[in-house]
Design a protein that fits this description.
15% of the residues lie in helices and 40% in strands. The protein is mainly beta and 296 residues long. An 8-stranded antiparallel beta barrel has the order 1-2-3-4-5-7-8-9.
Amino acid sequence: MIKRYSTFLLALPFLTLAASSLQAQNYSKHDRYRSVGVSLNGLSYFGDITPERGMGGLRLGSTRPGIALTATQRFTERISARVAFSYGRIKGQDVKAIDDHDANAQMRYARNINFRNDITELSATGVFDLVENWEDYLRRPDFVPYVFAGVAVFHHNPKGFIEGGTVPEGLIERTYVALQPLRTEGQSAGYSRTQFALPFGGGVRYRITKEMDVSLEVGWRKTFTDYLDDVSGTYTDVSKLTSPEALYFGHDVTRDDSKAMPGQARGNSQRHDWYMVTGVTVQYIVPQFRNTFKLR
C-alpha cells in the first residue's frame, strides 16, 4: 500500500504548485506568513527484521521517540514550504517480530538479529493544504487537512546488542556495538551512514490560539539503503569476520549454525528499508507587521 501511493503523493505538491501559480499572484505578500514549531515524534521501522514490509509489520512495542524543529513559509492560499531538523531512534529485534501468523517464525528465532539506529535528518518538503486560505493568518481556517512530500538527507548509525547465541571470549554481554565498521556480511567496503530519503505523508492542523496551531502528522521515509538494520544479503564465511564483534554479529548471534552457512540468506537485498514518523507538532506563527505609513 505504501508503494502504491508514494508516487502520487510525491508528485502532488509539484503539480499543485504549477496549477496555483496564476492564483498566487493575487495572494498578497503580507499574507505569506511563516511559522516555527517543535514536534514530539514516534519512529517505526520496516525492513528485514519485521514480519512484513508493509503496515502489517508495524510493531508499536518497537516504536521509539524522536524530536524535530521546523520552520514553515506560506507562499499561496494552499502551498507552503517546510524545513525540518529531527532526531530519533528506530529499533528491531527478531524475537519481538515473531507472531503466530509468521510463516518464517522459526527462521527469525534462529537468526536472532537485533539492532537500534539513531537517525539525524534534515528535510525540505512542500505542504499542500486541502482547505484554502486567501486571508492572513488571523483569518486562517480552524481545521486543515494537508499532504506533504519532499527530500531529506539523514545520518544513521546502527548498533547491535550482545545477547543470545554464542558470545565470543572478550565481548561483554548486554552492551551495544556499532555495526557498520564490522562488515558483518563480508563486504569489501562499509555502507555509507549518510543517505538520502523521500519523505511523504499527511496530517491535520488545528488552530488553538490566534498565533498557534497544533498538528497530528504521519509520514513515511522511502530510503535508498537496505542497511538501516545492518541486514541485507547473505551470511559470509567466518574467515572474513576478523574481530570478535564481527564474528558475533555476523555469525555467532544466530542460534543454529546450519542457518548461518556462507551464502544462505540473511536478509532480502531486493527491497530497501523504510521508517515512519508519527508526530504532534506545536507551531507558533510569527506575526506579520505591516507598514501603514508611506513616505512622500
